[in-house]
Description:
Elements (H helix, E strand, L loop, with lengths): L3 H30 L7 H40 L2 H32 L22 H8 L4 H7 L2 H16 L2 H26 L2 H15 L2 H6 L1 H25 L4 H7 L1 H10 L6 H10 L5 H14 L2 H17 L6 H17 L6 H12 L7 H33 L5 H5 L1
Helix pairs in contact: 1-8, 1-12, 2-6, 2-7, 2-8, 2-14, 3-10, 3-14, 3-15, 3-16, 3-18, 6-7, 10-15, 10-18, 12-18, 13-14, 14-18, 15-16, 15-17, 15-18, 16-17, 17-18
Amino acid sequence: MQTDAATTSLNYRFTWQIILAMFIGIIAGLVIRNLPAAWIVKVDLIDNVFNVVGTVFLLLIRTLIAPVLFIALIDGIYNFGSLKKSSRLAMSAIILAVLTTVAAIGFGFLIANLFHLGVNSVQPLPTDFKIDPLPTVPQFILSIIPGNPITAFVDMNIFQILILGFLFAAALSYAGVSGKKIADFTADLKVAMTALTRWLMRFAPYGIFCLMTVLCFKLNYNLILDIFGYFLTILLALVVHAAVTYGFLLFAAGLNPLTFFKKMFSTALFAFNISSSNSAIPFSLEQIEHRLGVKNQLAAFVFTVCTALNKNGTAVMQAAAAVFIAHVYHINIDPSSYLVAGLIIILASIMTAGIPGTGLITLSMVLAQIGVPPQGIVIIIGVDRLLDMARTAINVLGNAAITCALGVKSSQLDTNIYES
C-alpha cells in the first residue's frame, strides 16, 4: 500500500505529465498543420494515428463509467446506514446544485454585460428560424426511469444508473445476510475497479497528447481571432465563478478553498482534456476519496447526483453567450427575458447529459425561447471546443466542492487527509 508521501509524489508527477502532454500536443498539432500542402501524409498521421490513439483512450475511459458508478453507488448507499439519510443527502445535493447554478448564471449575465460583449458587432438578423423545444416534464420523467438495465448501462444514462443503484442498495439493506454477502462482494469489486482506474490513468498523458494534437490541427484560428474577446470573457467568468462560488461554499463548510483547488488541479486538467463530465467520474471519485478525504459511501452518491444535475460551467457559458449573441443581433434582453433564460438554463442543465457538445444544443434552446436566432451559435462555434473543455473542468470542480461540503456536514470527510 502506498504511503501518503508516495501518493502525493505520484499525483504531483501526474499533474506535470498532463501539462507537458498538453503543450507537446499543441506544438505537434501546429507543426503538422503547417507542413507543406503536398505532404498528404499529415492528414493520414492525424486521422490514422493520433485520432485513433486518442479515441481508444476515451473509449477505455467510457468503458469504466457505468460499472464504476454502479458499484460505487451500491457500496456507498448500503454502507451509509440509512435510506432516510441517503434521501436527505440527495435533497441537499440537489439544493446546492441548483443554488450554484443560479450563481453561475448570474456571473455569466453580469460579466457579459459588464464587458459589453458583442455590442460593437454587426450581424444581419435571419428571416426565419426554429428549434426543437426542451422535453416536457412527463417526457423527462419517463426518460430517467430505467425500463431496461442493460440499455441504461449501454447508453450510460446517469439518471437511470443512479436510480438502479439506489434501488439495488435499498434491496440489499432489506435482504439480511444474503444482502450483506452481495454487499461485501461489491466492496471487493470496488477495490478492483479502483485499481483498474489507476492503471488506465497511467496512459492518460499519451491519450491527452494525441487528443490535443488533433484539436490544434483542426481548429479554425481565424474564427478564434474574430471572437477573441468573447473567448477571454467566458474564461474570466468561469474562473470568477469557481473562485467565488466554490470558494465561499468550501469556506462556509470550514474547509480551506486553496487546499481544494490545489489538490483538484490535476482532476480539473484531466476533465479539461477529455471534455466530458461523465468520463471524468472514475478518476474524480478516486481523487475525492483519497486526496480530499471524503468517505466513499458519501462521495459516490453525492458526486453522481451532482454530475447528473450540476453543470455550472455550462450555465456560465450559456448565460454569457446568450447576451453576446443578442448584442450581436442588436436584440434587447429585458428583465423578464433574463428570468426566462435563467430558468431554461437550469432546466437544460438537469435534462441534458454530461457529454461533449451538449452546451451548444441547450444554448440554441435558450436563444429560441428569448427571441434570439439560434443560428447565432455559428458565431461562437469556432471556439466552443476549447470553451467546452474549460466548462467541463468547472463542472467537475463544482461537483467535487459540493461533495466536500456535504462530507463535512455529514461527518464523512477526514480533515487530516484534506489538509495533508
